[in-house]
Amino acid sequence: MSGEVLVRFGEGLGVRFPGATHLVALAKQMGTETIEFIESRLEGKFQLEINRDKTRVVDLREEGASLNFLG
Predict the structure, then answer these.
(1) Cα–chain-centroid distance for residue 5?
(2) Domain of 21, in residue numbers
(3) Cα distance between residue 14 and residue 29, in whole Å
(4) Which residues of the chain, if any, have pLDDT below 70?
(5) pLDDT confidence of residue 34
(6) Does any domain span residue 47?
């Protein structure tokens, strides 16, 4: 994946997302390939619907950036 962090899901461990409503994916670099990989897994393999109006990428290294998960 051209220098990006490989994102792996626990699919081989039998991890399921029944009724999942929130998910945070953390990576050192969140480029186009990483985002496309995550989206394809969630929508394809796990058959989840991504709410793109609420989905965002946050660079926590930027001053003032924060993540308020489920808050």
Answers:
(1) 12
(2) 1-56
(3) 27
(4) 1-21, 70-71
(5) 87
(6) yes
What is the spatial distance between Cα 24 and Cα 67, in angstroms, rounded to a whole number? Answer: 9
Question: Do residues 56 and 50 touch, judged by C-beta distance below 8 A?
Answer: no
| Structural domain contains residue 44 | yes
User: At residue 47, what is the residue type?
Assistant: Q
In SS3 terms, 47-71 reads as CCCCCCCCCCCCCCCCCCCCCCCCC
58, 67 Cβ separation under 8 angstroms: yes
**pTM listed for this prediction:** 0.61
State the average pLDDT for the chain. Answer: 76
Total domains in the chain come to 1
Identify whether the C-beta of residue 26 lies closer than 8 Å to the C-beta of residue 35.
Answer: no
| Nearest Cα residue to 7 out of 32, 27, 22 | 27
Phi, psi of 49 (to 5 degrees): -100, 125
